[in-house]
């Protein structure tokens, strides 16, 4: 049905995420140098460069194939914690999409939720630990709420984007309990979490891609 | 940034080429970024695989060889290697007796080694893992990433490598690795930050008259910043938290590692301050090692590791080892 996200739209999402990561690469690394190890921007950029090249080469025709390619490429090129975490997100996202050729708002919400659950299972973080979960959880919640009230994929994506941004900013006062920032203890408070920042770019990219589709 | 590099993006690949050129008795897989022993794993010998982000040289690649590691996976600077690198290494070195993964406790390393172990198990290889978490600067808690893995890793790789060379089976190797891990504690201090080539500038700013206490090995700031102190005072800042954390009385192996930018003369000066503090507290320094063994690029700093050691651990420590980073008895 018209308005559903097609494989083409979803490839657009991945390409837009690549652009946003490139655009914000220095900023992500800067955030990471304050409370981490100064490599989040460069690692994610390297991974998304590889993803875009692989997607262009493979030309996947279903969402499931697309996200399997994206997930495996991130796992094998990024390293660090973000490789397995972003990789697991996309692998689970694709798994939820099943054999569908296009995803409506409910199916995209379910895929987002599956991705989130995968990240939680792999990283064992909870909301409030100052991680990417703090942006992804409110995004998935906002998506589901919008979809339940009959919103289009575009409106659901806008709601998720706004919630992700709010979630990202909520990490500033938090004391990190997971990841490398946790070694700082109280000193991690007062800084934006780089993982929540890049996850917000991911959701912004989805909203952007659907708006231009 | 002033560094001996061509392009920041090529640092790891080009350094691996240099390792191959300098150590023809090792085999460097430049595609998978794995450093292997030159000879195949002897039938029945448990294989040891470690790895982690680069920038800590000689760890881990410099500890590949007879009596230590069978393979080391090199990640980008300060970034864990990926599961496919670890899987390739695990498959290449398994002789059928199983493989021990030696993992430092960082979220990325743990997640990637976990995925690799799952993939290896799916291919019928028995893999066990030991996670080293010895840094007393980090408060341990169920709700955090836990302590970082630092200097005890070097001591563990040496001791467990000797046991594997003697033919111990995987269960015995795992138990020994856990024993070394549980008995090791570390604490570090930095006088400067370090500069990650891809970042191009120091990871944090540290004024001339201040130092970071409780630093890790990735340029992440420590737990607190204090005024620069004398060597004698810094020695206490390193020794006290270790002794407060564990009963280290009795025989011990002590490692004092420079973090990459500290001259050996200062490291020895510090060891001269530290050894009597330990002895006075009942720690018998049976074996010691001073030098750059686990580093953090160009960081000026040192890290102290104390591993309480039993007779078997001391005997295995003394066993022959032939690697670029440690070499004796052969």
- Uncertain runs of chain A: none
The number of strands of chain A is 2
Mean pLDDT of chain A: 93
Most residues in contact: chain pair: A-B, 34 and 36 residues
**What class, by secondary structure content of chain B?**
alpha/beta
The structural domain count of chain A equals 1
Helix content of chain B: 25-40%
**Amino-to-carboxy terminus distance of chain B:** 41 Å
Spatial strand order of the main sheet of chain B: 1-2-4-3-5-6
Largest sheet of chain B: 6 strands, mixed
CATH level 4 superfamily of chain A? DhaL domain
CATH architecture annotation of chain A = Alpha Horseshoe
Shape of chain A: globular
List the helices and strands and how they pair.
The complex is a heterodimer of chains A (213) and B (330).
Chain A: E1 5-6, H1 7-23, H2 25-35, H3 40-58, H4 63-77, H5 82-97, E2 102-103, H6 105-123, H7 133-148, H8 153-170, H9 194-211
Helix pairs in contact in A: 1-3, 1-9, 2-3, 2-9, 3-4, 4-5, 5-6, 6-7, 7-8, 7-9, 8-9
Chain B: H1 11-22, E1 26-29, E2 34-37, E3 47-54, E4 71-77, H2 83-93, E5 99-104, H3 107-122, E6 127-132, H4 152-166, H5 170-182, E7 184-190, E8 210-213, E9 224-227, H6 231-245, E10 250-258, H7 264-280, E11 283-291, E12 301-308, H8 311-318, E13 321-322, E14 327-328
Parallel strand pairs in B: 3-4, 3-5, 5-6, 10-11
Antiparallel strand pairs in B: 1-2, 2-4, 7-8, 7-12, 8-9, 10-12, 13-14
């Amino acid at each position: 049905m018209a308005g559903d996200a097609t494989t083409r739209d979803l490839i657009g999402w991945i390409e837009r995420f690549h652009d946003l990561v490139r655009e914000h690469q220095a900023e992500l690394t800067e955030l990471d140098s304050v409370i981490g190890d100064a490599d989040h921007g460069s690692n994610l950029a390297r991974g998304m460069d590889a993803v875009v090249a692989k997607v262009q080469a493979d030309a996947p025709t279903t969402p499931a194939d697309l996200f399997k390619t994206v997930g495996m490429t991130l796992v094998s090129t990024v390293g660090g914690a973000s490789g397995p975490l972003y990789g697991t997100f996309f692998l689970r996202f694709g798994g939820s999409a099943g054999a569908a050729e296009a995803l409506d708002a409910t199916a995209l919400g379910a895929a987002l939720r599956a991705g989130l659950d995968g990240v939680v299972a792999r990283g064992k973080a909870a909301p409030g630990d100052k991680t990417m979960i703090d942006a992804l959880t409110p995004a998935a919640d906002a998506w589901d709420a919008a979809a339940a009230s009959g919103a289009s994929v575009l409106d659901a994506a806008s709601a998720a984007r706004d919630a992700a941004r709010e979630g990202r900013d909520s990490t500033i006062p938090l004391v990190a309990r997971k990841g490398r920032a946790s070694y700082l203890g109280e000193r991690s408070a007062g800084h934006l979490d780089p993982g929540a920042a890049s996850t917000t770019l991911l959701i912004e990219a989805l909203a952007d891609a659907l708006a231009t589709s | 940034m002033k560094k001996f590099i061509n392009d920041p993006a090529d640092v790891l690949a080009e350094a691996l080429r240099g390792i191959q050129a300098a150590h023809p008795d090792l085999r460097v897989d430049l595609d998978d970024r794995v450093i292997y022993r030159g000879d195949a794993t002897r039938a029945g010998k448990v294989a040891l695989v470690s790895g982690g982000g680069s920038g800590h040289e000689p760890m881990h690649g410099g500890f590949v060889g007879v009596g230590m590691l069978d393979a080391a996976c090199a990640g980008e600077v300060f970034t864990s290697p990926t599961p496919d690198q670890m899987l390739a290494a695990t498959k290449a070195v398994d002789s059928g007796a199983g493989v021990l993964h030696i993992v430092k406790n960082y979220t990325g390393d743990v997640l990637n080694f976990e995925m690799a172990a799952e993939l290896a198990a799916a291919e019928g290889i028995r893999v066990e893992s030991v996670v080293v978490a010895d840094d007393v600067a980090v408060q341990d808690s169920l709700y955090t990433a836990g302590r970082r893995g630092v200097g005890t890793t070097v001591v563990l790789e040496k001791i467990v490598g000797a046991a594997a060379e003697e033919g111990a089976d995987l269960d015995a190797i795992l138990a020994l690795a856990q024993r070394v891990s549980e008995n090791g504690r570390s604490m570090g201090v930095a006088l400067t930050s370090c500069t990650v080539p891809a970042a191009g500038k120091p990871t944090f700013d540290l004024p001339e008259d201040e130092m970071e206490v409780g630093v890790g090995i990735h340029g992440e700031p420590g737990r607190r910043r204090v005024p620069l102190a004398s060597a004698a005072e810094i020695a206490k800042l390193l020794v006290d938290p270790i002794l407060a954390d564990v009963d280290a009385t009795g025989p011990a192996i002590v490692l004092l590692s420079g973090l990459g930018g500290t001259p050996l003369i200062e490291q020895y000066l510090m060891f001269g301050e530290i050894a009597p503090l330990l002895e006075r507290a009942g720690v018998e320094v049976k074996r010691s090692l001073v030098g750059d063994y686990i580093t953090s690029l160009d960081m000026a700093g040192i890290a102290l590791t104390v591993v309480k050691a039993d007779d078997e651990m001391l005997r295995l420590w003394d066993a022959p080892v032939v690697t670029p980073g440690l070499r004796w008895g052969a």
